[in-house]
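R.M. (postdoc): so does anyone remember the format we settled on? I'll just put the structure tokens first.
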């Protein structure tokens, strides 16, 4: 995988492969913790949704969405991070804003791939179509009862969760790496282990702050617009972000908006270390240190 130059950032191929590897690794490794978090946030309750049983239920959807979703994110993120300052020169003096905009663009593209698999995963994890339903069962029943639009249930709310999350995580991650390099490493680029620590801090911070958005997203994805029994569909106001937020506050209180925040924060803090540590290792594998260092300085 050749790079076009030290100041141009990683090549398309590097970002693609490194992103796919990091996304698949982190989602497979932490899938059980994600299942526990999803069941805690379910309106049916943790035990009714399966408790600690079958924590790998729905894992089949991970391979379909994690690798391509993460690859799409990093390809877009690296491209925008490199080219946005050329279009908007003021971003050269505001690296944090550049990282925020680039990460937001990358997240939007990734969600086009990730949301359908997230819907299937959430429903399989919580037994929405039966305790023994696999990812394939959940996908087929979603298609049967809701059509293709069912796979994008909660897309808007997912964007509303992911963009704030990413807008915190990636500027903080890049900032921590710059500070680590300048203060403690005599200008040396952080290695992959050090980048992993920065990724863990950034991911955990972003996860804790955006838990209410994650709760609303999970609830919407778990609702079926039409049910096998022919029950009435929830009203659009209830399915909207403000409607769902107000419903949770009214019926369950503010604490419900932070349900699952501990496993979510632990999951994403640990996942951030794996995700960004593996990405940093893979994207810089075989590159001269001078090329990687020049790229970090430019960022």
């Amino acid at each position: 995988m050749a790079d076009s130059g030290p100041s141009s950032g990683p090549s398309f191929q590097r970002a693609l492969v490194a992103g796919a590897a990091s996304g698949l690794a982190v989602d497979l490794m932490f899938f059980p913790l994600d299942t526990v978090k999803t069941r805690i946030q379910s309106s049916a309750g943790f035990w009714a949704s399966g408790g600690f049983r079958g924590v790998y239920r729905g894992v089949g959807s991970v391979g379909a969405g994690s690798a391509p979703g993460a690859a799409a994110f990093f390809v877009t993120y690296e491209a925008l991070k490199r080219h946005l300052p050329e279009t908007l020169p003021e971003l050269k003096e505001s690296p944090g804003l550049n990282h925020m905009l680039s990460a937001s663009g990358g997240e939007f593209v990734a969600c086009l791939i990730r949301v359908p698999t997230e819907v299937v995963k959430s429903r399989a994890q919580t037994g929405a179509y039966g305790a023994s339903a696999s990812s394939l069962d959940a996908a087929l029943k979603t298609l049967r009862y809701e059509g293709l639009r069912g796979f994008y249930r909660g897309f808007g709310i997912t964007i509303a969760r992911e963009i704030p999350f990413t807008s915190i995580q990636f500027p903080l991650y890049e900032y921590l790496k710059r500070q680590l390099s300048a203060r403690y490493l005599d200008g040396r680029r952080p290695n992959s282990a050090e980048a992993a620590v920065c990724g863990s801090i950034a991911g955990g911070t972003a996860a804790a702050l955006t838990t209410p958005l994650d709760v609303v997203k999970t609830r919407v994805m778990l609702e079926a617009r039409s049910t096998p029994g022919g029950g009435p569909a929830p009203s659009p106001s209830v399915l909207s972000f403000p409607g769902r937020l107000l419903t949770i506050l009214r019926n369950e209180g503010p604490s419900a908006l932070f349900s699952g925040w501990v496993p979510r924060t632990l999951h994403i803090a640990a996942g951030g270390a794996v995700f960004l540590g593996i990405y940093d290792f893979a994207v810089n594998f075989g590159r001269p240190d001078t090329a990687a260092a020049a790229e970090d300085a430019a960022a």
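R.M.: ...and that's the designed sequence above, right after the tokens. Also worth knowing: Confidence is low (pLDDT under 50) at residues 1-7, 225-233. Residues 95-125 form the longest helix (31 residues).
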